[in-house]
Amino acid sequence: MKAIVCEQFAPVERLQYRDVEEPVPRSGEVRVAIEAIGVNFPDGLLVEGSYQAKPDLPFTPGVEFAGTVDAVASDVTEYTVGMRVIGVSDHYDAYAEKVCCSVQRLMAMPKDMPFTDAASLVLAHGTAHHALKQRGQLQSGETLLVLGAAGGTGLAAVQIGKAMGARVIAACSTDAKLALAKANGADELINYQTRELRGELKRLTDGKGVDVVYDPVGGAQFDTCARSMAPYGRLLVIGFASGEIPKLPVNLALVKEFSAVGVFWGAFVRREPATFMANMQELFAWYEQGKVRLHIDQTLPLSRAPEALRRVLDRRVSGKLVLVPDAAEPC
């Protein structure tokens, strides 16, 4: 079978598309013939050696996927050949035509969900959901600021914030990105390239400040957000897509009485699998109700994974980018 292989930590352009041995499911695993793979920012960091985890070399990157079960281990009874499933790889090996996955990290797909949507829902929406529900304790009627609101996880946070009853302020670098955030439910829009973010937040909150900030970007805007928090606010640290890890002026946390809250979705999934599965069931229900939806920027063949990852790392994707096996048509 074909797969993307990382031989050494290096720029994503060095990835190889080549033949590898077909995996065989071990105890507690099923093998899935992949139909679609979600491309995520951490995938690129992993390949370039900039992520928290560093798998043994060589490895195949990729975490979220959707497909059809085509083999099961002898002790597996929950899944049968032919079932449509969503998976979260526990071996960073989803950029392939087939993958083996523990049944604890598989979910049956909702009946009418396309494979491309299924492969895009788990990481971005799962991260935003966990961040806003378990870590941010977002309440109906509160104000939520989403930075990078046109990216995959940013759009997810906008949608989920609205589903949870918040007033959502979307912050982006272009008017086109803001239009996408607006189409996905944002109540207020701030172009922080043309407007002063702190002043706009003060105006939009009548000087109170923001209850919850969802920040997957880091960089200079983090400090602005720290100065714009409401009392008892929660500043959620999701990631650093800007490439700059900011420093927290802790005196502001003291005088404003807000909390900086870290969000590490991967650790949460491993630590609390039952809560993760409950979150996913809520997301599936919201999907079926139309409260959350997937914006697929582009679907590319698996062999073009280096190009896909470069676009994601350079923040040139709105919503999600999806890979499909080269012989497949998007479905």
TrEMBL record:
A Pfam family reported for this protein in Swiss-Prot or TrEMBL: ADH_N
Chain ranges passing through the membrane: none
InterPro entries with a match to the protein in the record: ADH-like_C, ADH-like_N, ER, GroES-like_sf, NAD(P)-bd_dom_sf, Quin_OxRdtase/zeta-crystal_CS, Zn-ADH-like_protein
Domain Enoyl reductase (ER): 10-323
UniProt source species: Halomonas eurihalina
GO molecular function: oxidoreductase activity; zinc ion binding
Family matches, as PROSITE patterns: QOR_ZETA_CRYSTAL
UniProt name for this protein: NADPH:quinone oxidoreductase family protein
